[in-house]
Amino acid sequence: MQKASPNRIEFLTENLDASHFSDQAHFRMFQDYLGKKYAGQKLDLILAFPSGDYRLADELPDVLFPGVPVVFVAVNEMVVPEAVSKHGITGIVQRFDLRGTLGLIMRLQPDTRRVMVIGGTSEADRATLGRIAETAQLLEGIKFEFWTNRPITELPKAVKSLPEGTVILLSTVQRDVTGQRFFTSQLAEMLAPSASVPVYVLSGWAIGNGALGGVVVDPEDLGTRTGQLALRVLGGIRPEAVPVEVATKGTPMFDWRALRRWGIKESRLPADSVVRYRPETLWEQHRDLILILLAVFLGQAVTIGGLLAQRKQRRRAEAEILNQRVELAHVTRVSTMGQLASALAHELNQPLGAILRNAEAAEILLQKEKPDLEEIRAILEDIRNDDQRAGSVIDRVRSFLKHRSLEIKSLDLGELLRETVVLVESDARARHVKISLQMPEQLPAVRGDRVQLQQVLLNLILNGMDAMADVAKPGRQLTVRVETAKEGNVKVSVSDCGTGIPLEKAKHIFEPFFTTKPNGMGMGLTISQTIIEAHGGKIWGENKDSRGAVFTFTLPANEQ
Ligand code: ADP
């Protein structure tokens, strides 16, 4: 009413409690009390809720508040007196939906043969029972038993062992045969939990204490309808212009817990049923929280998915880069070897020539009558040695050029350096370059790929020799120094006495395809840097104080 009204409504409440104090004396006392209390008050509307009879709606306001309009609402089966339709009164009489409830019993429990009706002895109680009996006649083959003259206190025991095919219909009980007063909801609580059969009720007030339900008077619905009617009257409609509404239609209403107890599926209930006391699902209780969490999880999943995809892509790209690096290193090795080819051919010519000369000498010795076998054996020994020398050069070249993947092993850098020098020795001789090696006796082992590190060394040595092309022959000195640096690192430097690195070019020399040589490729230092960094080391070049440049790289020692 307050929500629908533009004005503030003041509600004053008084309670006769006629279902328990229905005698004339109490009524008079109540009337006197109200008369005195409200003398001189200006009321706009009387809302009456008669339970026993209709005196609250007609007699009492007529005496105390003449001229004030009355709206009443009554829930019972009693005959509506003529008086309430008179001037200044209107209202709603809500009947119990007995047809509805009995129909519901047959729908949910078609095997029912017996209905135990529990009712009270007040005038209103008897009116209800009368109507139940009347409606019962419409159902054939079902026995109705009326437990009206047993004291209510005896009933809890009696309902415990009712046979199958029986249901209890709880009528209204304002007073029992012994004169004790009850509320129907109280009675439902006393009987339903221990009853061996379901308990049906007639009003929504009685649901919630164990009763199964029924097609009931819905208190909320009734309250709303009454409020609307009251507002119309407050708004100026004359009560007598609105006929008293007598309504029978109830609302199918159930206790969810009782439905479970009796194994009645919700799908069997009438379509417009109201099911109360259903526990809230987690979703209903924490809808917002669950939605937020879902959104967070979803966001997280999307991010993780994205990151995983990104990682996969990166790994693929890294693998591809590594592949290309190995490929490029191979190509530059082939090109480096190209530079050495003529010097190496010369290198091979030496043992081959010696072999030829020795073979010729042996032939001559064999022509003698008594060949000196000792001497021939010595010659053959020389031939074998020369052959091994040539073979080992070819082996080194081949292993340097072999297309292969990375092989990380523990290496002795000193030995690797010596092997590298063998490859460039003949070239150095041809260019009149003197190569000297400086290294301590004990060197920590390093971890790395033999061929790749050899490639770096070869690169730096050849670059150094190139830089000295214009230097007078006696000054062409190249020094390779290996030493242990701080933190156990191994440091290798290749120093020449050449042109040095022109200052303006210094920052470009490690860039791909940067070269100052007519036949240069400009990839040597780029590849060397990639290789050294992949080994966890560093490489740099600088000019010496004296003539020439020095290129240095470090490598972490094995245990690191
Ligand atoms: P390339 O040898 O094919 O030119 P590099 O990448 O090995 O390719 O070298 C790049 C450039 O760095 C060379 O062209 C040269 O200008 C310079 N450089 C390399 N080493 C030296 C050095 N020892 N002294 C002077 N300049 C050098």
Distance between the first and last residues' Cα: 86 Å
CATH superfamily of the largest domain: Histidine kinase-like ATPase, C-terminal domain
Strand order of the largest sheet: 13-15-16-18-17
Helix content: 40-55%
C-alpha Rg, in Å?
A: 57 Å
Can I get a quick summary?
This protein is an alpha/beta fold and 560 residues long. The chain has three domains: 1-95 and 218-248, Rossmann fold, CATH 3.40.50; 97-216 and 250-279, Response regulator (Rossmann fold); 407-560, Heat Shock Protein 90. It has 14 helices and 18 strands.
Using brief descriptors, characterize the structure shown.
four-stranded parallel sheet; 560 residues; Heat Shock Protein 90; 14 helices; single chain; Rossmann fold; 18 strands; five-stranded mixed sheet; binds adenosine-5'-diphosphate; alpha/beta
Explain what this protein looks like in three dimensions.
By secondary structure, this protein is α/β, with parallel strands linked by helices. The longest helix has 81 residues. Helix 4 links the parallel strand 4 and strand 5. The chain starts with 23 loop residues before the first helix and ends in a 5-residue tail after the last strand. It has 3 domains: 126 residues, Rossmann fold (3-Layer(aba) Sandwich); 150 residues, Rossmann fold (3-Layer(aba) Sandwich); 154 residues, Heat Shock Protein 90 (2-Layer Sandwich), CATH 3.30.565.10. Helices cover 43% and strands 16% of the residues. The site of adenosine-5'-diphosphate has 23 residues, from helix 13, helix 14 and strand 18.
